[in-house]
Design brief:
With 497 residues, the chain is mainly alpha-helical. It is built from 20 helices and 7 strands.
Amino acid sequence: MPSSLKPGEVSLNAAQRDRAVGVLVGKACGDALGAAYEFGPPLPADEQVFMKASAVFGVGEWTDDTSMAIAIAQCTSGAGVLWAPESLDDLVSRWVRWSSGAPDVGIQTRQILSALGDEPTAQKAREAALRFYEDNPQRSAGNGSLMRTGPVAVLSLSKRVDDAMKLARWISELTHADPEASDACVLACATVRHAILQGDLDALIGLEHLPVDRRDLWASRYDEAITRTPADFANNGWVVEAWQAAWSAIAMTPVPDHDPGSESFACQQFQHTIENAVRGGRDADTVAAITGMFMGARWGRSAVPAHWWSALNGWPGLVARDLVHLITPIFGRQHKSVHPRWFEHTETHRAPFDADLILGAAGAVTVLDELEVDAVVSLCALPSYRSKAITESGREHHEFWLIDSDRSDNVNLDFVVHQAAETVARLRREGKRVLVHCAAGQSRTPTVSAVYGARLNNSSFNAAWQSLARTLPVVAPNGALIGAGEFLAPGPGGIGA
């Protein structure tokens, strides 16, 4: 471990950090999408699914699947590492407090947590879970520990893989002592860890961490999963079929052709796969949450559609950006938000092709009342208190991670630029006055604005960029961002054309 890293922190590149954050955000997306379809029948392959309210949860609101995972991410705040005994005791206490007021808690999980008394500990939870398993050996392998396990993989990235897999099993056994449940958690955490680090999915990469006599069984279960559809796994409340249904959805969903000009992006497999998981029905939110965990680890937070990102919300009063802030501490100094000096730059300019599109640097978010804007589109990472202040001001706020660097640092670059420009277009169609900003307002801001302007006037990216260059005091073209803009704008001609 580099000397600059504290215990629990891990050195990752930009793409790996995007994928690490994507695990919790991805599972929340699947959970919130599936919530309104829970206990429903399977749906036809061509039926659209939407984030909508259910009888219990609001639009975009996650359920117990994500709430329990959030508690895992939160419990490192004291000791700093998930595997410390005090962190695990803290985790169980958080689950107990959450369950006392939660509208939707699994039967087995509620029974375990309610038996822990006034001073819950991890050891008491394990003992209660074991008693439940001994008393109910045929119905103690629910999917309740698998659905929450993603953050365990993320927060243990600094550990040796063997130790991380032991931790995955240990945390599963806090409520689910059946080996079927903990085996599934080990496999899932190994998959997530590998996807974050390597960028691809491997369902069985953790097989060596299972007891030898159960490895062939799980391999055969995977073989079955990839030859069937999610709807075929009708007993998906059982951890095995929930795991199989998720892998079935992944296997049946192809990676789209990457053709930005036609608004087709490879990373849209993230969305399409989660939708297919929901269509499997029954315990749809949990299967979709498990699927989202895997797809987030594969494609990253940057693959999340803007309309899903803006809708996400849930216990304990969090929104999507808060899920990000739960994970970024493990990156240490690698995760950098806007340098404070850019908040001193409050000057703004109207876009030449749309007087109600205001362009600026990060400092513009400190003078929103003066600007009289209704919405803010941020193209850089803001400190959490700045983001919160924008939202609390009553303004609509959308955040996109773009890095003023090369394409390798900008995961799913074409898709992110497209989503940002489309968000600006939607806000303007709704009659809202919009601020678009990045850190300095010189590269990311004109790139996204030029894509919007080119589409607005059906002109070339070059024409829109040049009009911005005449308006803004400084423009600093970034080759990777410019390339994405040229792909996405409707007309011919790039910078210098």
